[in-house]
Design a protein that fits this description.
Layout lengths: L3 E5 L4 H12 L3 E6 L18 E5 L6 H4 L6 E6 L6 H6 L1 H21 L4 E7 L22 H20 L2 E7 L1 E3 L12 H10 L4 E4 L5 E2 L1 E3 H13 L20 E3 L5 E2 H12 L6 E4 L14 H7 L7 H15 L1
Parallel strand pairs: 1-2, 1-4, 2-3, 4-5, 5-6, 6-11, 7-10, 8-13
Antiparallel strand pairs: 9-12
Helix pairs in contact: 1-7, 4-5, 6-8, 6-10, 8-10
The protein binds uridine-diphosphate-N-acetylgalactosamine (UD2).
Uridine-diphosphate-N-acetylgalactosamine (UD2) binds next to strand 7, helix 6 and strand 8.
Family: Belongs to the NAD(P)-dependent epimerase/dehydratase family.
Protein name: NAD-dependent epimerase/dehydratase family protein
InterPro entries: Epimerase_deHydtase (IPR001509), NAD(P)-bd_dom_sf (IPR036291)
């Protein structure tokens, strides 16, 4: 049997797009998801596909028992996470349990189970307020939240566990991901999902602060492609530095577009995508702990993975708005 790729959090927003990309590459996929935020509908496309197996379970649980009989696994893509910065501040120990402890346990299990590669969803949050924008991977990491600190600590754990246990580890520092299947209703929703849902409902968009703060907004399909490249790199003539000899340098790879978009600019683009009026914007006080600017350098991803983002913001917004329209 074709060795599988395990995708934790595979029923989630980024996870389900990752399953699609891996299936398109001919991979057998095993999804592990506890369905706390993931949705079965996100996987409905593969109902009856024998190459996609879905296991319900928590990554903090006995993963070896949960996945018995589903291997062998060529690689693990670890996306199951506590994804909210705000929640990590309110409940740092819970964040630590999921984002660091479960990640470390999963990596140890994966190595023992014979997986050759472990791809981890890290975050731009490891940088805190970047010294320079666009921020390069070699810049200092000074996370401002337990979320960012746990992601950075997980990178460090993977960086030493990989060579110790003969498994290649790749940490992808995801910037602001948006696209279809991102939940617009949660209080922790990303700005794009929130803006699109409000614009479609004819409600004003609320900008926190003056709206001059910037983010690097990357379409989820591009992120799923980067993840798939990280799984395949090296096995298909991709150049992945000296990954066969040890962990890649630097410890994480930025996954962004390199384009800095101000929140005011995004609001205007969302209104264009939904055909609503520009004056429907209100301003509210800036959020606490907000960073001013964020954008990725993209050369490391290009060199190590052969990855560059392709979907322009207007096109990504159009696709996301179309998906929201289908949801009714
Ligand atoms: C993102 C990630 C977070 C972490 C962090 C790293 C999301 C949802 N969150 O947080 O997980 O990786 O980056 O730095 O991707 N905004 C408004 N109005 C709204 C909602 C948001 O003005 O209704 C602004 C917000 O103040 C911020 C920007 O939009 O300046 C982006 O906010 P966000 O919550 O989408 O993401 P961010 O960058 O805080």
């Amino acid at each position: 049997m074709n060795d599988a790729v395990l995708v934790t959090g595979g029923a989630g927003f980024i996870g389900s797009h990752t399953v699609a990309t891996l299936r398109a590459a001919g991979r057998r996929v095993v999804v592990l998801d506890d369905f706390s935020t993931g949705r079965r509908e996100n996987l409905s496309e593969w109902t009856g596909d024998p190459q996609v197996e879905v296991v319900e379970g928590d990554v903090r649980g006995e993963v070896g028992l949960l996945l018995a009989g589903h291997g062998p696994f060529a690689a693990v893509v670890h996306l199951a996470a506590q994804t909210s910065v705000v929640r990590s501040i309110a409940a740092p120990i819970d964040d630590l349990d999921v984002n660091l402890r479960a990640t470390t346990r999963l990596a140890l299990w994966a190595a023992a189970a014979g997986a050759r590669r472990f791809v981890f969803a890290s975050s731009a949050a490891v940088y805190g307020e970047p010294c320079r924008v666009p921020v390069a991977e070699s810049e200092p990491t000074t996370p401002l939240s337990p979320y960012g600190a746990a992601k950075r600590a997980a990178e460090l754990y993977l960086g030493c566990l990989g060579p110790l246990h003969g498994m290649q580890t790749v940490c992808l520092r995801l910037f602001n991901v948006y696209g279809p299947r991102q939940d617009p209703k949660s209080p922790y929703s990303g700005v794009v999902a929130t803006f699109l849902a409000r614009a479609r409902a004819g409600e004003p968009l609320t900008i926190f602060g003056d709206g001059e703060q910037t983010r690097d907004l990357i379409y989820v399909g591009d992120v799923a492609r980067a993840i798939c490249l990280a799984v395949e790199a090296g096995s298909k003539e991709h150049v992945l530095g000296d990954m066969t000899a040890g962990p890649p340098e630097p410890a994480g790879i930025n996954i962004g577009t390199g384009r800095e978009v101000a929140v005011v600019e995004l609001a205007a683009a969302v209104q264009r995508a939904c055909g609503v009026k520009a004056e429907a914007i209100t301003f509210a006080p800036a959020r606490a702990g907000e960073i001013a600017r964020s954008a990725a350098t993209t050369d490391t991803a290009a060199e190590m993975l052969g990855f560059r983002a392709e979907v322009e913001l207007d096109e990504g917004l159009r696709r996301t708005a179309a998906w929201l329209a289908e949801q009714g």
